[in-house]
Design brief:
The protein is α/β, with parallel strands linked by helices. It has helices spanning 22-41, 61-65, 78-81, 136-139, 148-160, 177-190, 207-210, 214-226, 316-334, 369-383, 387-403, 417-420, and strands at residues 13-18, 44-50, 54-56, 75-77, 85-96, 101-106, 109-116, 119-122, 126-127, 168-173, 194-200, 230-233, 237-240, 244-247, 252-254, 257-260, 265-266, 282-283, 289-291, 294-296, 301-302, 348-352, 358-362, 365-368. A hairpin with a 4-residue loop joins β14 (244-247) and β15.
């Protein structure tokens, strides 16, 4: 759905949100929570400019790839998630902070348009740098662009059901949390018909856990081994062709499925170039403003941790909390009050290796097995933008527990009893 703001009555205050991800949804929620009456009365107008008409919840990407959840469960139309906002399906092309203007193009109607704003929130997120690996953009898969997950899952299902003599090989590049979860999910999806190779340039997977939670990192290694995932360390993905993945050590792997989880680059909107760090992220002040009238959070921003002084991690939780804080500060500015600095210090992280198998860390306390899986599920359900979708996800898992994964309606090619057995704690 496209809603274009035209002439007519101009609200006393216009807030423009760029992107349809976590920052935008939670900035909107924070603004509605603290200044909802002004929005509903028309005194504040909220405009969203997004290239996608739905919000993609990435927390259950592994479950979608493994066939445990339908892809639709992770998608919430923006007009449903933000009913008091005007949603424009298009792309922001430039920001003019001096004159408080944002330029954009509609998805279905070329030609530049201009919209003035009183407050602008940049939540355009990040994308995998696919062009950094020759051939990856043309022949491989990524996870962050709209529709990527659905296309990848269908591709692997079709490859796994092609009955030839050799298992279908999938190469995952990147041994961080996303890469490890994708490797486990695709191995779980294909069973004996899919062979997964995880390639990581470092000397160990999950570097974000290795120092603080070595036990969880070791548990992840055991889970990958259980699923038959081969881990190659100290080597990176060098190039990709239609049917091979070439590695930096000279090895070539026959693979028609290559997935790049090789970090991310911010989606930049031209303008504010003097306020970017070397990685292209907008550098924020303590209250998450960039310059007067412009705010940023999430993967497109460099937000400094309030205690360590280092940039916060680029993941969904920090984008959610950053968006919430921006929304609260927007409400404060509407009342003429001073803004507050971002004070969130973190909660934890988690990864899943199949139904009932997870690792998680909450306030520095490690959990594994069913308890970790339930904690992760509870946390993700809490932050899904649609209560209806969250209830459906809970129902899907309940049916899966009762009847097996065929109840999801998106069954993988092969599953074993071992895949469904609860894990012993490490």
């Amino acid at each position: 759905m496209t809603t274009l703001i035209r002439g007519g009555h101009r609200a006393r205050h216009r807030v423009v949100l760029l992107g349809g991800g976590y920052v935008t949804l939670h900035a909107y929620a924070g603004l509605m929570r603290h200044a909802g009456r002004a929005v509903r009365s028309g005194g504040v107008q909220v405009v969203v400019i997004s290239t996608d008409d739905a919000h993609s919840f990435h927390g259950f990407t592994g479950e979608v790839l493994a066939g445990l959840l339908p892809y639709d469960r992770t998608r919430t139309p923006l007009v449903d998630a933000m009913p008091h906002a005007n949603v424009i399906l298009g792309r922001a092309t430039a920001i003019d902070a001096e004159h408080r203007l944002v330029r954009y193009e509609l998805a279905d109607d070329p030609g530049e348009r201009v919209l003035d704003y009183d407050a602008l929130v940049v939540g355009t997120g990040g994308r995998e740098p696919a062009t950094a690996v020759p051939g990856l953009a043309e022949h491989g898969f990524t996870l962050r662009a709209p529709g990527d997950i659905a296309v990848l899952a269908e591709h692997v299902r079709q490859a796994a059901t092609h009955h030839d003599r050799q298992p279908h090989t999938v190469v995952i590049a990147g041994g961080g949390m996303a890469g490890v979860e994708m490797a486990a999910a695709l191995a779980d999806l294909g069973g004996a018909r899919v062979h997964v190779e995880l390639v990581h340039s470092g000397d160990a997977i999950l570097p974000e856990l290795r120092d603080d939670q070595p036990g969880l990192a070791r548990r992840a290694e055991r889970e990958l081994k259980r699923l038959g995932v081969r881990v190659r360390l100290g080597v990176r993905l060098a190039s990709v062709t239609e049917d091979h993945a070439y590695l930096s050590d000279g090895t070539s792997l026959p693979a028609s499925t290559v997935v790049g989880t090789i970090g991310q680059r911010p989606v930049q909107v031209p303008g504010l170039d003097a306020h970017r760090d070397p990685r292209g992220r907008l550098v924020t002040r303590p209250d998450l403003s960039v310059v007067d009238g412009v705010w940023a959070a999430g993967d497109a921003a460099c937000v400094v941790h309030p205690t360590s002084g280092e940039p916060v991690p680029a993941n969904a939780l920090w984008a959610i909390k950053g968006g919430e804080h921006v929304g609260r500060n927007l409400a404060r500015t509407l009342r003429g009050r001073s803004t507050k600095p971002f004070a969130y210090r973190g909660l934890g992280q988690a990864a899943s290796f199949g139904f009932g198998r997870s690792i998680s860390e909450l306030y520095g306390i490690p959990f594994t097995g069913w308890l970790a899986w339930v904690l992760r599920l509870t946390f993700f359900l809490r932050f899904m933008p649609s209560r209806r979708k969250a209830a459906q996800v809970l129902g899907d898992f309940a049916r899966h527990a009762a009847y097996g994964r065929s109840a999801s309606g998106s069954a993988p090619v092969e599953a074993t009893v071992a895949d469904l057995a609860p894990a012993r704690t490490a």
